[in-house]
């Protein structure tokens, strides 16, 4: 598969249509991964979240005329870190990642745990432990820009597979992410939208919000919008995994009296076999 040497600028606006402090670029990498560039125009600071492959990220930096200062890592899987060492060597950027995962990440300049902060220009990002897909997976939430980088925890219409954690751990991680402010924009690690949409329809096909979203997705895909970037409010209404606490979803999957985590575990198991 040939790489797509193109980064996609994503404009995040609020109700008053003011552009947010960070400029966000989604950089397609490998088959369906994204790296994200965040640039603070006031200070000139630029960071990248995950580096599946160094070349497309460098290409995007050059195209924008940005100098990279920081590399933020969400988790240890190769498709999120394989380009880190090359990019560090080329730019001298500082590498931030989870202390819990330091034995299986490239060498860290800053080891992080839940509640720590990452400063990019004048903005502070908060670190959330979102274990489940892996143990030690972290997310970065930048409240001023209203961006949350969730990689393989919360994904567009889906969530990551449970390679290391339990359903209870993933449910607790998703619950943390669901509690972020309504206007948060989720930037996830992959475009799995087609498979995720098919699964969502199979368990929640009569949800009008889901139907409307999938129709919109088809138009957005034609416009070349990055499918891995989605408003949290829309995820809450349409992502079947986030709806595990909804009595209507519990009834649909035949578990009306079950706990939220049990319904989540059931949905995740269904998706694994889908
Ligand atoms: Zn992963
Ligand atoms: Fe991944």
Structure in words:
Helices cover 32% and strands 24% of the residues. With 274 residues, it is an alpha/beta fold. It has a single domain (3-273), classed as Metallo-beta-lactamase, Chain A, CATH 3.60.15. Strands 1-2-3-4-5-6-7 form a 7-stranded mixed β-sheet, covered by helices on one side. It has a 6-stranded mixed β-sheet with strand order 8-9-10-11-14-15. Strands 12-13 form a two-stranded antiparallel ribbon. β8 (117-120) and β9 (123-129) form a beta hairpin. α5 packs antiparallel against α6 (208-222). Mean pLDDT is 93; it is low at 1-5.
Write the layout of secondary structure elements.
Elements: E1 8-10, E2 23-29, E3 33-40, E4 45-49, H1 54-64, E5 70-72, H2 78-81, H3 84-91, E6 94-98, E7 110-112, E8 117-120, E9 123-129, E10 138-142, E11 147-151, E12 154-155, E13 158-159, H4 167-178, E14 185-188, H5 193-204, H6 208-222, E15 229-231, H7 232-238, H8 247-252, H9 260-273
Parallel strand pairs: 4-5, 5-6, 6-7, 11-14
Antiparallel strand pairs: 1-2, 2-3, 3-4, 8-9, 9-10, 10-11, 12-13, 14-15
Bound molecules: zinc ion (ZN) and fe (iii) ion (FE).
Zinc ion (ZN) binds at residues 75, 77, 133, 152, 160.
Keywords:
274 residues, alpha/beta, Metallo-beta-lactamase, Chain A, seven-stranded mixed β-sheet, six-stranded mixed β-sheet, 32% helix, 24% strand, globular, disordered N terminus, binds zinc ion, binds fe (iii) ion
Query: What integer value in Å does the Rg equal?
Result: 18 Å
What class do helices, strands and sheet pairing give?
A: alpha/beta
Total number of distinct structural domains: 1
Residue share in helix: 25-40%
| Topology-level CATH name | Metallo-beta-lactamase, Chain A
CATH architecture: 4-Layer Sandwich
Number of helical stretches of at least 4 residues: 9
Strand count, sense and barrel status of the largest sheet are:
7 strands, mixed
Element string (H = helix, E = strand): EEEEHEHHEEEEEEEEHEHHEHHH
**Portion in beta strands:** 15-25%
Instruction: Write down the overall geometry.
Output: globular
Major beta sheet, strand line-up: 1-2-3-4-5-6-7
Oligomer: single chain
